[in-house]
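so ive been stuck on this for like two days lol. basically i have the seq below and the ligand is zinc ion, smiles is in there too. i just want the complex predicted, nothing fancy, no docking runs or whatever. if the output looks off dont worry ill sanity check it later, just need somthing to start from for the group meeting slides
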Amino acid sequence: MKRIICLLCALALFGGFCPAVSAQSEPLTDGRSRYEMDVTLDTDASRLTETVTVTFANRSGQPWEQVCFTDFVPAVQEHAQPGAYTSAVTAVTGGDGGALEYVSDREQCLLTATLPQPLEPGAVTSVTIRYEADVPQTQGERFQQASFPGSSGVTYRLCQFYPMLCPWRDGAFVHHPYAFSGEAFFTECADYRLRLRLPEQFTVIASGDELLAETEDGQALWQIVGENMRDLVITATTEFAQPFTGQVDGVTINSWGTPEQAGQAERSLQIAMNSVELFDRLFGQYPYDELDICVAYMPGSAGGIEYPGLVEIIQADVSGEATFAAAVAHETAHQWFYAVVGNDQYDEPFLDEGFASFCEYLYREYVLGESREDLAADIDGVRAYMDLLIDQPGFQLDLTYGDYQQADGDGSGLHYYFAIYELSDVFFWQMRQAMGDQAFYGMLRSWYESQRFGTPTIDQFLTHLSDASGGDSAVSALVSQYMTRA
Ligand SMILES: [Zn+2]
């Protein structure tokens, strides 16, 4: 029922939708930025044409003369095949429709627009960006078109496909380089209304609610609404069968794959349902109506990728059954720790990856029924080799993605992997032992409740941890042991 009402509301809103006019006339919800997007996917040319209107408030304490947007498309295009693909900002206009001066730096993946007059703290304005981009025909990128081996269809994975307003922190817009290994992005929760036109044989799966509004002359119009989400991702496919669908705590979970992947999609649904039930109980309610699980063709991936309301999982026949199952639990956990409680994934990856990684242990214990003794033995195994590394630079939990890369020196990603995916498991396991289950889960529940839809920092988490543990010396000793800050 909730979903139907939501879609009806969305339709009503779309009825009067006109980006340049409506942008400033409609107030922002709770001060969140709003993206209103008209997107056409030309599948013959594999090219996107976008009109993106972002309406936003200056929530800093100082006037803004310029505003910055991250545009990751050029990085992915160059990575896929240098020089083969193009993208371009073709116009930038302000809230009154007047042209704005702008600099589109493809190398830095940064678009900077100069506002017609400084935007004072608390004031609201909008910027409309017209944008075009080739979607690379490649494998293993998050912005690509590809086909599963042996398939006659095609799947477009459209992630970070639009200019994204940079968050403001510590007196500046925050902009990080694109991370090819691991997810390391930083965006704030916003409201999205997107109209997508593409050939009618495509099925559209997206963050938020998606609705096929009309078809005409072989073209379809899809409407996508995402409320209070920190990103919006789209999968457009002619390869997928009907989804396996279930309900948990009022949330609809859809698990998608090709007809040949029906077994995996069915197992994914069960794992995701068990995960949502578990994490709802341990941390607090998943706030959105829907969660989509998609099999994705991404050779070289570690297992899966998380987005708000949608996760992608590598094929089980490629990853192996255990990795696939862990990936579904892990990426589902990211809905709590990344999608809802956000963070700067580049500067502080521990806050989402560390939490989600530890959630795999919780899934094994509470859903699969593995004994604590067996899990403790696994943790001891990890700890044994982490003890050899922990005193070396680059293996602490509170470093940046860039710090880990620098410590590698060779692009291997090993420091990031060991610290964020292995050491964090030991850290949380020992913390749980030190605090006891009741206090430990209480601490995580109050963290989730107090930081929902925000982007807290590690410093805030450590303050929360200290408060929740009553300044327990065993807990602070763990922090000192595994982090550079005490
Ligand atoms: Zn993860």
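Residues 306, 330, 334, 353, 356 surround zinc ion (CB under 6 Å). The domain at 36-139+161-230 is CATH 2.60.40.1730 (Immunoglobulin-like).
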